[in-house]
Fold each of these.
Amino acid sequence: MSSKRQPRSRSPSKVAPARKPPRRPGRPQAAGGVDLRGRLLDSAIELYAERGIAATPLRAIAQRAGVTPALLHYYFASRSSLVETILAERVAPFVAVSVAPLLAPLPSPRATLRKFLETHMRNLAANPWMPRLMVREVLSEGGSLRENMQAQFAAVISPKTLMLIAAAQRCGEIRSDLNPLLTGISLISLAVFPFAAAPVWREVALSTFNGLPEPVMKAIRARQAQMKSMHAGAPGWDVLIEHTLTLFDGMLEKPHAKTKT
């Protein structure tokens, strides 16, 4: 009886590893849907505000954003293209928010000025990089953004606020013995300086308070507690904004007649 030959068992064939498909052309994708381009813009703004534009190489921006220099160059071919993008996508929207009350004035010129002051300060609080960038690149001699900011910002704010102050004086809403131009400068200073100089005045305030007599300190602490209770849960800048608006309300009032002695 002949036995049938059993087929030989074949060893399993080796499976070739799957090849990764080539990357499709277009913007690189980050894990978790992170907006790498937005992160690069944020990092550039932070460093420009800290060091200045001329002192910030592109490599430092890539390092701050946690990406490779090659990826930064993918989005922005040069420093000038990066700065132009920041002006278009970050500075221009900031300016639009601040000047909106001036472009849509209320019936009352004084109320329009007050609304502008509050809107601008809240805009600065939401974008703390802006006042520091202005100090370095607009107010400082040789600042690389001075011409652009004058065209975008000052060219709108200066004439609009000047006309509003003059109109408010004519209709008796604010005192008429103030110089309209200097009043406008004072208003902008009230709005911008606390944000631009925050690190300095906070340190000075702490050192000054430490040397005050205890009764004075007690009164200051009581006032601070009162303000915090009025703004429970509000960001720290809210107290400053309300304080500035109170100054605005008081400094533009008509001077009280002096009593004869």
Amino acid sequence: MTVEKPDGLPERADLVQELRLLRRGGLPALQSLVPEGLRAATLYAGYAHGEDDLADGAERLLRAAARRLGADDLIGRAAQCTYGLLPGRRGDPAAERRRAAALVYGVTPERFRHSQELQVVEQLAGAVLAEAREPSGPTARPDGAGAQAADAPALVPRLGLPGRAGSRRVTVHIAPIELLRNIDILVSSENVHLEMSKSFRPTVSGALRRSAAVGCAADGPVTDVLAEELAAWARARPGVLPLRAGTVVSTGPGALAARGVRRVYHAALAVPEGLGYRVDPQSIATAVAACFARARQERADGHAGLRSLCFPLLGAGRGGLDRRTSAAWLRWAVEDALTADPDWQVHVVTRHPEAARLFEAEPPEEG
């Protein structure tokens, strides 16, 4: 039986046990039963007002708690993956959610289960209690507006762009790029020597390299598909490196094919400078144009049916650009590309809700 603290909230240890059980059933399990401690926290926080909205309120509370842990933090991202809190992941089975969380840390699902998973659950339980005690939370807005606002960062904003065929729409995903599905082409940012990021680093390049690898170290050799294809491309062209900033090289998807990905485009943007890298924002526009040109060429050369591309915030990781600058150049370049050739579905992906808001459609000018 769950023990409640004097303020009406459950003990953290009891909430941890409930969340460990909820991990198996996932968010859909809340529709049949909200555990006692989570129920108390949801009602106390004002995310629900009774049995009718209890399940939905508990889900909103969990989403708010995961965001409190932070999208930039490994624990926060792993919590979102563990409970299916990312867009389009709500109904994923437990094994798939655990695998996604393990990818955040760059470990096997089994190692994650024995090592990091309990820490993730414990931290999420603490964030649930902290969110419930937040005086400015939904409790202060009994009309329900607070509950809706708490869920807002999970929405997928869209950007309206003009094109010959009328208004074009770019879908913006707040999610890790490696968890997207059924997008033909994923774009990665690399350095001008075509050296991908280490697979354990929390970068787009590292995440795609890790997710595309074929095989499991526990079962035998692992094929580092993307890095090996890039190395083979460079070997076939002696003296080509370093590339001109903005050049795009394509590879196959490796294991990402299971998610409906058909190609990975590697945009060479980062120029080594001292101990770090430098990215010229104008090279983002060059790379975006090159991605569309490459996609058109590959569609004509046998990859029939290529229709969709997904761009991260190019150069905003180890490249050193701030997100606002990267988003602005990406937005301008995509608008220009779609104006010239509107026959594409374009996606943008970021883990940061504040960056996603940079792509929200601007209101029309008056007059």
Amino acid sequence: MKLNKIYSSILLSTLPLTPALAAGLDRSGQSIAAFLQPGNYAEAGISVLDPKVQSNQLKVNDMAEDYYFPSAAIKVQATEHISIGLLYDQPFGAESLYPSNNLVFGANGEATQVEVETHNLSALIGYQPTENWNFYAGPVYQTVQGTVSLRGLAYGGASKLGSYDINLKEDEAYGWLAGFAYQIPEIALKTAITYRSEIKHELDTTETFGFGAIQRPNALTEVVTPQSVNIDFQTGVAANTLAFANIRWAHWDQFAVTPKFLNAASGNNLIDYSDDQISATVGVGHKFTSKWSGSASVGWDSGAGNPVTTLGPVEGFWSVGLGGQYSPAENYFIQAGVKYFWLGDATARTGTTDVGEFEDNYALGYGLKIGYRF
């Protein structure tokens, strides 16, 4: 069952090459698999998600926008016992746009929409006292920014919050991560547990009401991206075959975005979640030839509570994924993959009022990654 190191380490990375559509604002899953590769290693990838989120009850054909996000990583084995790495991803985000001709979510030719963008840069240093153990930690640099427009009867119409806009200017802040990994190369066994801290942001905020007629600038809005724990596991199960699993917990149940003037006008949060996220993926990978390998996986996500915000009206998902890897030479590879998501039905809510049901939703995810060992 023994697998050569380059095969066993790279095959595991077929797991995250397609994007997640998880609870809250979760996107990338915050994997550190690249840092756990043996030797010197670099990779770059891009993921694309094409969701369809609809409500027949509210006559909304699709409110979820397509989006893509890149990722990159480099890891250097500086000495026999010390490794360093740098990981980039976009861990959290949202991109939604309702039809402007829908009176529930549109007014004056404008539509309810949201765009939230984050960037993460994680610097790691690892200590390997033996071949089997790896202890690692490091700082995390993160930026967050967002814009939201509320339109239509779902928010009380133009006389209330149905003509509200908010601009959350980009803010940078720092957190940290730490974890350990254990491996037995002879049986391709590798497991890792990684903790990431919450990161607190104070974003300069401008709020406007009445389609921009009333402006409320110079306020600060607190946004705390959640702490999380990732557990990754793989082991050889037969000749040229690996089984793998990932479990992720993210602390969303206390997450809330509470702009000063929106809260004063309505007593509500702009965005909040009521439950923590738990997600899991299990699958198998197989090497068919010296150059070709593939993987298949099944995933589940709990969601972050129901009812949910109108800015992301789904509750969790089930998914299936397929991935393929081509290795023209032993020191580099190209991966591609696809995932299909059955998105959970959800009740959309504004404040304490249920607006309507979103059902029969789905998404397609695509991914491409290039890895190189040097």
